[in-house]
Structure formats: C-alpha cells, structure tokens
C-alpha cells in the first residue's frame, strides 16, 4: 500500500504525533478516502461482491458509513462506553447479514485496511516501542470490532436462513398442484399472445411482449427462484427465457418486417422452446415432491438429509452432560443377490420388512434413517454401549428368525450385519458415523449376521 | 502475556533467529502449549463456551488440533500450496460449524493468541524493521486463515439452520395431533406406574422410575426441544420434570420408608405437577398451530415473519440489475371507530374485505402481508414509482366506491390511506419500509383516503 503512504506522508512532526495513538488516528484521518476505496476494491475483484456493488447507489450509501466507522474506531478518544461500542458493532454486523453482504469479503477488505494502515505506521517516525504499540492498537481495535460484528452476523444470518427455508417450504407446500397448472396456463397465454400478434391481431405490427415480464416470467424470476433454488431444470428454464427475449423475439420481429418464409422456421423454434419449458416446469414440481417429504417413501424411515440436525443436537446434549447415545449402522447381508436374483420388487419388500422390524424394536424417541441403498442408520438416544449392543442383537435376531413372505408364495430369509458406536466425547458427529461404519465393515469381515462394536475394533 | 515470555525467553541468540520469520516460528513453537491453554481459557470464561468444553474429552481432542494448526500456520516453510492451505482452513471452519462451536469465541480466542505472540515478538531482540515484519507476518497469516474459516463457517452454519428448520417443520407437521395424544398418554403411564408402585404393586419397596428417562421425559428432552425451541411452556415443563426427579421422588421414597401420613401430601403434590405438565403440553401444541401457518388466518395474507426472506431477496434482485420494486403501506382509516363502534366482528369483516380488494387488484406474483392490526404491506415486484402509485390508487378507489354489506343488513363504507416507496438503491430493506411508513403518515396528516409517496415527502 505504498501509494497511500507516498501520497500522504504519515505522522506530523509535532511532539504529540509521537504518541502512538495520535499517529494512528492521524494516519487514518489523512488516508480515510484511499482506505475506503481499498476496501471496496476487494469487493469489486470478487464476482459475488461486485454483483452486490454494481449498483452505484449502494456504494454511495455504504462508503460514508465505512469511513465513519474507521475514523471512530481508531480515534484517540473513542466516544461512548463499552456497552454502546459493542451495540454499535453488533448493529453493523446485523445490517451486513440483512443486506446479504458476504461476511468473508468484509473480513478480507478489513484485512487489507489493516495492512495498509500498518505499512503507514511502519513508514512513520515512531520508534520501535511506539511502533509496536501503535500496531497493537490497530490490530486489537479492528479485531475486537470484527469479533462483535461476526457474532451478530452469524446470529442474524442463521435466523434468516431458517425463515428462508420456512418460506420456501410454505411456498412449495402451499398449493403446488394448482401452482403448476396456473403457471403452465400462464406460459400458454404468453405464447398465444405472440402467435395472435403474428397473425395480425392487434394490428399488423402488433407488439411482441417479452416473456421475461409476462406473468409466467415474473413467477419464474421471483417465486420459482425461491422455491426451486439451485435446480438445474430452473437454470435451463431461465436460459430459455433469456434466449427467447434476447435472440428469438428480435429475429421474429425482423423477419415479420422483411416478410417471407423464414418466419415459420422461427415460430417452430419458438414452439420447441415453449414445449421444453413446459416439460421442465413439470420436472421442477416433481423434483420437490420427493425431496421435501421428510421420510423415505419406501421404508418410511427418516430422510438422511435430517442427519446433521438430529445428530448435531444429540451430540450437543451428550456433551452438555446428558447420557451418551449409540449409533447402529445396519446393512442387509447379500442384498445384491436378493435384488439381482429375485428382482427389485422383492428387494423393496425386504427393505420394507427390515425397516418394520427396526421401527418395532427401537423406542418412539429413537431416530431411524435410510442411510443408503440397503443401509439404515439408527440413533439410540440416552443409550450406552451395552444397551446399544443389546438392541442391535434384538434387531438382528428378530430378522434371523423371521421368514419374509413374498407375494408369489415363496419364503425368503435375510440376515443383517450391524456396526455399533457409542458417543465418545468427539464433538463432530461425522466421527461417530465413521466409527459405526468401520464396525459394520468388521462385522461383514467376520462373516456377516453379527454385531461388531467400534470399541472392540479399537482394542483388537 | 508476560508469563509466557518470562517462562520462555523468546529468540535464540543465533544469527538465523534474527530473521523475522524464524523468530516468529520459534516463539510459536516454544510457547505452543501455553498458547493453546490461553485460547481455551477464552472459552472457559464464556457460559456458552464452557458448557461446550465441560466434557473433558472434547478438550482432549481439540487441543492437539489447535496446536498443530498454529505451528503449521506460523512455520517458516509452510508445506503445501495455496490450494491445499485454503482447503484445510475451510475444512476447519466447516467442522466448527458442524460441532456448533460459537464462531465469535474462536475469533476472540485467536485474538488473544495474536496478542500474546505479538507481546513475545516485541520482547525479542528483533530490531524495528524486523519486528514490524514479524508482526506483519503474524497478523496476515492468522487473519488470512480466519477469513477462510469464517467463510466456510457461515456457509455450513446457514445450511445447517435451513435443515434444522426443515426438520422442525417436518416434525411439527408430521402428526401433531397424534403426537400430542401419545405424549399425554405417555405422561399418564408414567404417573400411573408411580402410583401402582406406591400401592405396593411390584413389591413393597418397588422402584420409583424417574420421569426424565420415561418415554415422556425422553420425548420432552429429545423431540420437543427441537419442535418447540425457546417456548416458555417447554421451559416450565422441563423445570417440573427436574423438580419431580430431584426433589419430589426422593421425598416420596423417604416418606414411604418412614411410613405415615406425609405421603398423601406428597402424592397430591405430584398430582398437581402432572396436571400442570398436561396443561402446558396442550399449550405447546396450540402455540405452533397458529405460528407455523404461513398466512394470517383472518385475511389469508402472508404472515409478516416471511418479510425478511421476501424483501431481502427482492432487494438483491433489484440491486443485481433487475427492475425496481415498490412497497405500499396501507392502513384502514378510522379503524378504531369501526372496531369500537360496531364491534370486533364487523372490524374483522372490514379487514377481510380490504384484503380481498388488495388481493384482487395486485398480480399473482406480488406479495401481500398483514403487517399489523389494520395495516397491510404490499410488495409490487418489477414496478416503478409511477406504476406503484397507479396500483395504490386503484386499490384506494375500489374501496372508496365499495359498500361493505354487514350480516345485520346494514352497510358500511371504509377508506384507506397508502404510503408508497420505491427501491432507491439502499441495500437494507428496512430502510424502504421506513420510507413507506413515513409516506403513510403523511397521507394520514393530509386528510386520509389518499396515497402519498416517499419521494414527494423528500421534496417537500
């Protein structure tokens, strides 16, 4: 950041300027505008950040705020007490979260600010001790503010994420069949308005309204974007809408003015694109129907996407002094043989019966997840290792003794292998899943149809 | 952090030690254990942090990780390239989010680490330039890592918050009537088991099973805690459960052994507490029934808790170059007179009819919220100021012309005042709500039954 120190040689020659705090405040004041530009430069170099700041008014509104923040933070005599200082920094963090400013960009920009100010301090006439104390002030004041802002940022943005998700599920759950049909109709209405216009209704040169601002386009942009966030079908729909408005409609308008045959090729291209959008619209709604249900439709066990919520919470309870919990990782032995030999429908039936035995054996307050194809993960709450093995064995033995009746009248017997792992103080639940997985592997290695424990493996 | 520098005088006397990087790495290596303790000291002084670390195994697992991180970060020759460095720091941030370690405590602890290391550098024999460059290295390495960790932390924890909310809504939506009844039954089963045991079934000194580990207690602890997070009724239920297990049951057991009359006083106390829990349980389920619906039951307009999601998103779309949107804040004129004069049911009818007119006038893709008692907030997407005023006037005039028919055969006429504000580049949507609110106030001041705009106020 040499340009800053060169432009504004830091530190006046008075005696007061030798005071580290005054030197720091002086440098900040002299370079405030350059520092603010430096901060926003960080944003402009980042794709997400520059999209955010592309609106000139945003920069206009934010820059004076940053300038004031910096000068107050590094002032010789900060006004106000600790309580109001903390409240102020937290309020800024909350605003950043509300305006969805990426926190890491704020941190990175602030880092550049610190480096630039530090370089100016080094270039100042402060002696070794004075420099050290000015650098110390600089770092601790800014880091202190960043901690407070960060705390508020995380709290407001996780709250925001909760509300976003609640609204998304509300919007999807609302009346998605009606919604699908009304949007299909809205799409057809738009395409009809184009065709009528081309056939001379509304005057020979009648307007060709863009699809982007039609009711369908507005829905895609403002509602579907929220309901189907990140869906590839939605991205294709968006690309098609843009293509229609930016390429196809102008070409159609041009061909109409010129008259002649190319128009029909263009309208049939339009037809194809509208059909594709209609197809993708159906896919969009179908994709959430399965995803949003909390349970696996085949086995009625919990969807594994809830794992982080449930195991994260159980780990926190166990750490805070609750009883430990035990995970069982259960896999159906030789499932591939069943599926390949007797067919998928028999495979499905086996999975459903295994799930039933598990659900009948555990307590209502335990959690059973479909973890993979033929794998289930069972979280036995407030259950130590010995009790966990007992329940695992009860499940395994029930299945061993059970004859599954198939629709064709034949019988089938299945066995399962189980790996058990009990909470061992590790705060990351993925560690415990790994242990249960390793124990399951050991049970398979030892000949299947048995329960192995993570503890036993560790000892062997 | 003098004790650290005193215990381990920093900087060896060799020539290599005069290199700022080696001095820094040397000080970090010599003081690693003390630094790690200092970091965890921050956590132990914080209520949330100390609860997290109270489990001895957590500290045992985390400390070596922190030690390794610090030494690698400040080493003279960091191994690996930038890509793997970034991946590593991000992985740590993700783990912190997964284990729900409060991010601000990590930042605060790291700040203390930096200060301690800086103090040791100041105490080293490095000259002014060497000191400045060692301090620069220390700060930039740690800040760099914190930025990367922070980015991953925010991303994983907001994702986690989304899944938590999805699971909460799933659990509530699941079968809450069945759930309420089964939990009521579970509570009764427990209390019956105590009474039977006191009446001599299961042997004279039959066990008195704690309610905390009964099916009902497990449900309260592991499911209700998630479904009804932060509810005061749930806190009272929890307090009652603890009171029963820690105070009442031991007293009952004691009284039973001693024999005699005090037992009946204690069992009637138990009865009262169980009744209270039963009552609170009903309240718990009732409280979510209203809260969780996305719409206001009276007017069918959107629940205002979705405001942050919707306006945050529309602001982001407008900033990223979309068309501006306009907010209308609408208030029913003299609503108090209607409510007080004609009764609440007429007031409700008026609100419902006003909502119907609004919903009939706006497009399907606009958003209408019940903002307060007789206030509605309308977000008109992709609508500039002129079009916004037009829609506001259409709503106002429809209502002015409309006669509301009351069930008693009488007629009623209502008017509304509207404040309009159009997106002006401010990234915080609360600013726009304020503007619409001020415009509404101006419309009321100017005599009601009119639309005022934020722009006009700014000019006047």
Write structural notes for this entry.
The structure is a homodimer of 460-residue chains. The first copy, chain A, is an alpha+beta fold and 460 residues long. Chain A has 3 domains: 2-163, Orthogonal Bundle (Globin-like), CATH 1.10.490; 172-291; 304-459, 2-Layer Sandwich (Alpha-Beta Plaits). Chain A contains 16 helices and 7 strands. Chain A has helices spanning 2-7, 20-44, 47-53, 56-74, 82-98, 103-123, 128-198, 215-227, 232-258, 262-291, 307-319, 335-342, 344-361, 385-401, 429-445, 454-459; strands at 326-332, 367-370, 375-380, 404-405, 411-412, 416-422, 451-453. In chain A, strand 6, helix 15 and strand 7 form a beta-alpha-beta unit. In chain A, helix 2 (20-44) runs antiparallel to helix 4 and helix 12 (335-342) crosses helix 13.
Features:
homodimer; 460 residues; alpha+beta; Globin-like; Alpha-Beta Plaits; 3 domains; five-stranded mixed beta sheet; two-stranded antiparallel sheet; 7 strands; 68% helix
Total strands of chain A: the figure is: 7
Share in β-strands of chain A:
5-15%
Count of DSSP H/I helices of chain A? 16
CATH level 1 name of the largest domain in chain A: Mainly Alpha
**In the CATH hierarchy, what is the architecture of the largest domain in chain A at level 2?**
Orthogonal Bundle
Identify the most extensive interface between protein chains. A-B, 97 and 97 residues
Largest sheet properties of chain A: 5 strands, mixed
Strand order of the largest sheet of chain A: 2-3-1-6-7
Order of helices and strands of chain A: HHHHHHHHHHHEHHEEHEEEHEH
Strand-pairing-aware structural class of chain A:
alpha+beta
CATH topology value of the largest domain in chain A: Globin-like
Instruction: Describe the oligomeric state of these chains in a short phrase.
Output: homodimer
> What's the overall geometry of chain A?
flat
**Unreliable spans of chain A:** 1-16
Mean pLDDT of chain A: 85
Radius of gyration of chain A: 32 Å
**Which range best describes the helical content of chain A: under 10%, 10-25%, 25-40%, 40-55%, 55-70% or over 70%?**
55-70%
- CATH superfamily label of the largest domain in chain A: Globins
In angstroms, what separates the terminal alpha carbons of chain A?
A: 59 Å
Number of domains of chain A: 3
């Amino acid at each position: 950041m040499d340009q800053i120190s060169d432009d504004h040689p830091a530190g006046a020659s008075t005696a007061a300027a030798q005071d580290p705090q005054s030197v720091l405040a002086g440098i900040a004041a002299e370079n405030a505008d350059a520092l603010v530009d430096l901060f926003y430069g960080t944003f402009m170099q980042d794709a997400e950040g520059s999209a955010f700041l592309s609106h000139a008014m945003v920069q206009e509104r934010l820059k004076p705020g940053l300038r004031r923040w910096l000068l107050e933070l590094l002032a010789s005599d900060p006004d106000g007490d600790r309580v109001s200082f903390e409240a102020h920094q937290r309020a800024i963090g909350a605003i950043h979260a509300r305006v969805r400013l990426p926190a890491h960009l704020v941190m990175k920009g602030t880092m550049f600010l610190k480096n630039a100010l530090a370089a100016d301090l080094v270039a100042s006439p402060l002696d070794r001790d004075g420099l050290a104390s000015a650098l110390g002030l600089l770092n601790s004041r800014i880091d202190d503010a960043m901690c407070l802002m960060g705390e508020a940022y995380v709290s407001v943005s996780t709250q925001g994420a909760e509300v976003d998700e609640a609204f998304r599920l509300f919007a999807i759950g609302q009346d998605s069949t009606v919604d699908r049909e009304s949007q299909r109709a809205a799409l057809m209405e738009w395409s009809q308005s184009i065709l009528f216009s081309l056939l001379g209704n509304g005057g020979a040169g009648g307007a060709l309204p863009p699809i982007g601002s039609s009711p369908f386009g507005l829905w895609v942009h403002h509602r579907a974007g929220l309901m189907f966030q990140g869906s590839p079908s939605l991205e294709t729909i968006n690309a098609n809408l843009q293509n229609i408005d930016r390429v196809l409609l102008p070409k159609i308008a041009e061909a109409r003015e010129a008259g002649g045959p190319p128009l029909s090729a263009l309208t049939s291209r339009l037809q194809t694109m509208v059909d594709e959008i209609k197809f993708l619209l159906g896919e969009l709604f179908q994709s959430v129907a399965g995803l949003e249900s909390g349970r696996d439709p085949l086995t009625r066990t919990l969807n594994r996407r809830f794992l982080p919520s449930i195991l994260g919470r159980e780990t926190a309870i166990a750490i805070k002094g609750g009883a430990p919990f035990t995970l069982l990782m259960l896999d159906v032995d030789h499932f591939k043989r069943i599926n390949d030999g007797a067919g998928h429908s028999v495979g499905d039936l086996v999975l459903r019966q295994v799930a039933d035995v598990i659900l009948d054996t555990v307590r209502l307050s335990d959690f059973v997840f479909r973890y993979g194809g033929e794998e289930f993960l069972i979280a036995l709450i407030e259950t130590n290792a010995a009790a966990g093995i007992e329940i695992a064995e009860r499940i395994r033995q029930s299945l061993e003794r059970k004859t599954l009746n198939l629709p064709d009248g034949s019988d089938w017997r299945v066995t399962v292998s189980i790996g058990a792992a009990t909470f061992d103080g590790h705060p990351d639940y993925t560690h415990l899943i790994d242990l249960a997985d390793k124990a399951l592997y050991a049970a398979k290695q030892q000949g299947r149809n048995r329960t192995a424990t993570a503890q036993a493996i560790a000892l062997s």
